[in-house]
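tool_call predict_complex ligand=magnesium ion
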Amino acid sequence: MPDHRIYPPTSVNYTLAAKYLRQGKLVSFPTETVYGLGANACDDRAVAEIFAAKDRPRFNPLIVHVPSLEMAEKYAYLDFTSRQLAEKFWPGPFTLVLNKKPDGELSDLVSAGLDTVAIRLPRHSVAQQLLRQFGGPIAAPSANRSGRVSPTTAKHVEEELDDRVAMILDGGPCDEGIESTIVQVSGQEVRLLRPGSVSPREIEMVAGLPVKAVTAADTPTAPGQLKSHYAPRAKLRLNATHVLPDEALLAFGRNIPHTAGPDTAGAVRNLSPSGSLKEAAANLFAMLRELDSMNVETIAVSPIPSQGLGLAINDRLQRAAAPRPENTPAGDKAS
Ligand code: TXA
Ligand code: MG
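tool_result ok
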């Protein structure tokens, strides 16, 4: 009998699942749309595990699942219209992109460095019980490998992820099978970022505002291509094997180049002194922000191996290093 990771939703198993989440492990759980691959949304390392498990070559922002509207408000601002939508469509297959509160508790990796966060309160009883038992926010993309279809049974999840997930809570087949509707209220319109079973018509009825479908080019599936995506104000110099006197350094591994001129003494962060790509992914956005806030002109970045999570790290760094159009104000952050 192969090692079996599928567990029925009993109270003992909810307790175990919540314990795994607290330990930074991954737990897959059903929602009414698809199965999610969950991690503690406040734990950078655990969120990095999600990207590693999915073989995602990029850091897409993830949906944060919460057990209550109150918890959503702990992490994000709800404008009037977003609140109306939440009251109508939560719990359910509906996700709101909201401005993040700046208390820094949510992992920066969850929102891929954006100043916004996608939040959902699912209706499925197993998801709700797990969220209540855990008592915190759970980051969860669909529980499939990158580039494959979203799983709608526990068995699918096991086939996709095998030993990359500590536990799969079995809630039977998902009712809906398509991912949640994602919207963002923006001024006098509601932007539809991803269509789902909550229709534009229903949203318009509640919001009293027009719903505008946004094209793929406007959505942050490719972070960094999006105008509003977090881009550091400083220039990045990649694959740096030495550091100039006025540069900050984002290092990786043990053999870090000798630094730093008197101007930038202290402007050094190491993504992972031990050379762990998971640790580096977990630290990436927070360290970029820290160095960027020190008002240096250039951040030298040590070479990062292009394998596993290193692919996603390098993708993000290359986007941050790419020249920006002249008319984009430096430091133009997410709206
Ligand atoms: O039904 C669902 O929504 C499932 C279940 C597990 O909740 N989750 C899901 O997650 O489909 P995922 O990671 O496969 O898709 C999340 C989508 C991505 O397209 C991402 O770009 C978008 O949400 N997203 C997340 N945060 C965002 C943000 N701050 N701004 C705009 N889009 C965001
Ligand atoms: Mg997905």
